[in-house]
Amino acid sequence: MSTSLNTRRPTEAETGATAPTAPKGLLPVVLTATFMTALDIFVVNVALPSLQGDLGAGPAAVQWVMAGFSLALAAGLVTAGRLGDRYGRRRVFGLGLAFFTLASTACGLAPTAAALVGARVAQGLSAALMGPQVLAILRTAFSGAAQARAFARYGLTMGVGAVFGQLIGGLLIRADLFGLGWRSCFLINLPIGLAALPLVRRSLPESRAPQRPGLDPVGVLLVTTALTGLVLPLIQGPQLHWPLWTGLCLGGSLALLAVFAVHQHRATTATATATTAATATTATTPLVDTRLFRDRAFSAGLLAQLAFWLGQGSFFLVLALHLQFGRGLDALGAGLVFTAIGLGYLITSNTTHRVTARLGERRTIALGGLLMALGLGLLALTAYGAADGGVRWLAPGLFVDGLGMGLVIAPVTSVVLAGVEPRLAGSAAGVVSTVQQVGGALGIALIGLVYYGAGDPAAAFGRSVLALAVLELVLVGLVRFLPRGAHGAHGAAEAHRAHEAPHEAPREG
Description:
Layout: H1 26-42, H2 44-55, H3 59-87, H4 89-109, H5 113-141, H6 144-175, H7 184-187, H8 189-203, H9 217-240, H10 244-272, H11 296-326, H12 331-337, H13 339-349, H14 352-359, H15 361-383, H16 394-417, H17 425-452, H18 457-478, H19 487-490, H20 492-497
Helix pairs in contact: 1-5, 1-6, 1-8, 2-6, 3-4, 3-5, 3-9, 3-17, 4-5, 4-8, 5-17, 6-12, 6-13, 6-14, 6-16, 9-10, 9-17, 11-16, 11-17, 11-18, 13-16, 14-15, 14-16, 15-16, 15-18, 17-18
């Protein structure tokens, strides 16, 4: 279903999807930022023990080194997506990359735990500026098969940062470059960021919504407060055994999200009923255009995104706990075990666009979900003794799980965004990125209840991976609600919307 009330057919220049002319350096630049963000979410797990001793950080400070980044990232994504629509996606991306590089340097040089927590919050806000712009740029700069390949590279980069983050951190700490120890896990971003920054203006075409939408200050306040109230208790609740304030925060956040949804719907209606662009005031421009949810691919795809990301962060957490506390491995040894997932992931994520072109996105996502469920089932056998014999018996299940991950992560993202009008790409990308982050936090909280409620380490791991296997089967079931066809692989929705929706032209300079 179209999300636009304008039936004028756009010109080719207005579509904002000109894959043949996309600069060659575009993907390396935006995917560098994606890798840095994914890496910094997971690499800190390895650095925590040494930084805790070096800075004299207490348990609360250590928790906030983790929570500060995730909280700031989740709370800022929706607003950041709209900032890109208004001020230009390249401009906002460049600012985010510059700030992220500075914040990473501040993390690496932090003299106290409080300074490190503050720098991690700044890192999260900077990552929020970049994340939606990456998805929006991929949506507007590529189309058809080129877009499918671009999203496949995006999925590959996210997975490599997540899967190998712990290994990379362990290697950096073991190498102890220049005596930096844990600080190198953050300072590694400095040369990467400095190398990428000069290429932003040269390699990224500028694009923005055609009428410079307003920022909707009421919407910004509502969504930021609501997401903070939602994510904070999900992060802190498991460690604190769910005190009263966590329940109050969750209830209040849900109420605020309902108010935000009503506010956005009213703003969308006001904008849609304006007779001309001149009468549509910036005060009524919504942060999230609710007409997006009329698109079946967008709304059903978000549910699939949520199901997928519920399992990802929680799986990495329980696996790391199992390896280090259940199997007695150190951080580097645990990181090496993660390479089994990485190997499977690299095999399929490099070819996902070809599989999608042949099977379509629905079947590709379903196949990936089934493989993940199978891999998690194999891991459960090791926990319950059916394949007891050391860490090496984890490898088959991890490898199969990695194969499934590689088949899901790119199609489940592209299916949501491929049919979105380019003028709404930033807003839609902010929603998608927020679902990813909230899904990860919610999954950690829920699976954490399963893990810590079991007592015995082996049983805790076994119950957790079985619960995650069920979750992957839920993902497979949700696939049936996605529309038939493959807009990411063949650009079918792109062609359809070319008859229905106005788009913006990319702006150079």
